Automatic annotation (TrEMBL):
The lineage of its organism: Bacteria, Pseudomonadati, Pseudomonadota, Betaproteobacteria, Rhodocyclales. Residues 95-270 form the Prephenate dehydratase domain. It is found in: Cytoplasm. This is Bifunctional chorismate mutase/prephenate dehydratase. Keywords: Amino-acid biosynthesis, Aromatic amino acid biosynthesis, Cytoplasm, Isomerase, Lyase, Multifunctional enzyme, Phenylalanine biosynthesis. PROSITE patterns: ACT (PS51671), CHORISMATE_MUT_2 (PS51168), PREPHENATE_DEHYDR_1 (PS00857), PREPHENATE_DEHYDR_2 (PS00858), PREPHENATE_DEHYDR_3 (PS51171). The record marks T263 as: Essential for prephenate dehydratase activity. Its EC number is 4.2.1.51, 5.4.99.5.
Length: 363
């Protein structure tokens, strides 16, 4: 290495070191401000909820809108999410329940939304995730609600009808499925373990590449990876988190049939969420059993100029051949036009429940 190159590199590295020192100082200054926010809340008797989804969403959007590059918006959003996560943990680490074990896409969604400083609590079923937060053993739940390929997650939708928890956030996670195994090649694979949704998402690839392999549904992709790691001739379909956690090599990557395969998760907690400026409201309703009743339920949204982004039916479990409808609309329930539409809807619907208003996914 010549002397001119060494001097040039030394100058840039010295600048990097100086910037790192500034970053360290600024990060700790930010942490002290976050601590002061907690102290002010405690002084005024509002220390119950330290996590404010609407405030975090506003911070992340401001950062994204002001990002000049060269770092991508996803990169700076991830960085600031982790900074906020670490600052919150100084006051009280957030307990977050999700469908486990460790290594599931649900874990990835929980970390994406709450950062690595959150205390993650894996559960064996979606029912247990709800119960963990309802009993206040955890602060928040992260549960899958729909997949772009396979549609709604029925158990989550059923539990939303009865839970006292409110939706306070959403996470959109791009799903990449991989075939994981300790076997050296595809011709050694006789069994494929995975969650039923993941098996369905990779159906055509399996038909083409492993037509003779037995497909076995598991409670989660992470459980499938655990099983495959200990069984000769076995493979699992799972994501990067499971591959890393269970030390399984990838025999094939990105085997999902749909290239834009995405899962949407909702975050559940005990508190209502204030307006952030870019929000969504979710609700459940059922129509009286008469001609045109569903159309009547949609009229308040149309008249108020409220945009509906989702309308999905689900069998009502208490009555044969009757249905409830899950609806997402753009905006917050506190906005006047949405509040007026919801008031009319409550008078018209046979059953009506607002699941929550919450910020749109940050990234």
């Amino acid at each position: 290495m010549n002397e001119e190159l060494q001097r040039s590199l030394a100058a840039v590295r010295g600048e990097i070191d100086a910037i790192d020192d500034q970053l360290l100082d600024l990060l700790n200054r930010r942490a002290r401000c976050a601590q002061r926010v907690g102290e002010i809340k405690a002084e005024h008797g509002e220390a119950g909820f330290i996590y404010r989804p609407e405030r975090e969403a506003q911070v992340l959007r401001r950062i994204q809108d002001g990002n000049p590059g060269p770092l991508s918006s996803d990169s700076v959003t991830w960085f600031f999410r982790e900074v906020m996560s670490a600052c919150l943990s100084l006051e009280k680490p957030l307990g977050v329940a999700f469908l486990g074990p460790l290594g599931t896409f649900s874990e990835s969604a929980a970390v994406k939304h709450f950062g690595h400083a959150a205390q993650l609590s894996p559960q064996v079923s979606i029912d247990d995730v709800f119960r963990e937060v309802e009993s206040r053993h955890a602060d928040y739940a992260v549960v899958p609600i729909e997949n772009s390929t396979e549609g709604a997650i029925g158990r989550t939708m059923d539990l939303l009808m009865a839970t006292p928890l409110q939706i306070c956030g959403e996470v959109v996670l791009r799903i990449h499925q991989h075939l994981l195994s300790r076997e050296p090649s595809l011709d050694k694979i006789t069994k494929v373990y995975s969650h039923a949704q993941s098996l369905a998402q990779c159906h055509e690839w399996l038909n083409r590449m492993l037509p003779q392999a037995q497909r076995i549904s598991m409670g989660s992709n992470a459980q499938a990876a655990q099983q495959a790691s200990a069984e000769p001739g076995a493979a699992a379909i799972a994501g990067d988190a499971a591959a890393d956690r269970y030390g399984l090599p990838k025999l094939a990557s990105n085997i999902e049939d749909e290239p834009n395969n995405t899962t949407r998760f909702v975050v559940l907690g005990h508190q209502p969420t204030g307006p952030s400026g870019r929000d969504k409201t979710s609700l459940i309703m059922s129509a009286p059993n008469r001609t045109g009743s569903l159309c009547d339920l949609l009229i308040p949204f149309s008249e108020a100029g409220v945009s509906m982004s989702r309308l999905e039916s689900r069998p009502a479990r208490h009555t044969l051949w009757e249905y409830v409808f899950y609806v997402d609309v753009e905006g917050h329930r506190d906005e006047p036009k949405i509040a007026a539409a919801l008031e009319q809807l409550a008078q018209r619907a046979a059953y009506f429940k607002v699941l929550g208003s919450y910020p749109l996914a940050a990234y």
